[in-house]
Write a structure and sequence with these properties.
Layout lengths: L1 E4 L6 E4 L5 E5 L2 H7 L4 E7 L3 E4 L3 E6 L5 E6 L6 E6 L7 E5 L14 E3 L15 E3 L7
Length: 138
């Protein structure tokens, strides 16, 4: 069982089993959502996530195709996880890796989404799958 939560501790979560994939996303929406150069998403089956607290949700019409439901803490604004209506992502939750309590080193990236939008100063990762959009299948 893996555990995590938001910065202020009002929302905590756990998921059972091992993640399906860890994906880096370089799209502009993930950059804005994380305040960083990319997001690190750990995909787990929707049925394996349990949480305590009341996350707020934001419906993100990505402008790139899929719609995402973003769950975050209404107090500290930590983004916790995302769900999508994209065909290859249905039935999965993308947990934001930085919210894990421990063990993040155990989940290196399997692939990159929106790889062409990677910031130029970040070196490419040649040993992971590259996707041009959300055409990934979990």
């Amino acid at each position: 069982m893996k555990k995590g939560g938001c910065l202020c501790g009002k929302i905590v979560y756990e998921f059972l089993g091992e993640p399906i994939k860890t994906m880096l996303c370089h799209c502009i929406n993930c950059k804005r959502m994380t305040g960083s150069s990319y997001s690190t998403n750990i995909s787990v089956r929707s049925t394996s996530l349990r949480f305590v607290g009341s996350p707020r949700q934001f419906l993100l019409k990505s402008g790139q195709g899929p719609i995402f439901t973003v769950s975050f803490c209404g107090t500290c604004s930590s983004t916790l996880w995302k769900e999508s209506d994209a065909e290859g992502l249905k039935g999965f939750i993308m947990v934001q890796a930085g919210t894990l309590a421990q063990g993040l080193d155990r989940y290196p990236p399997d692939g990159k989404i929106f790889a062409r939008e990677r910031v130029k100063w970040m070196r490419p990762m040649e040993d992971v799958e590259q996707f041009e959009g959300t055409d990934v299948r979990l």
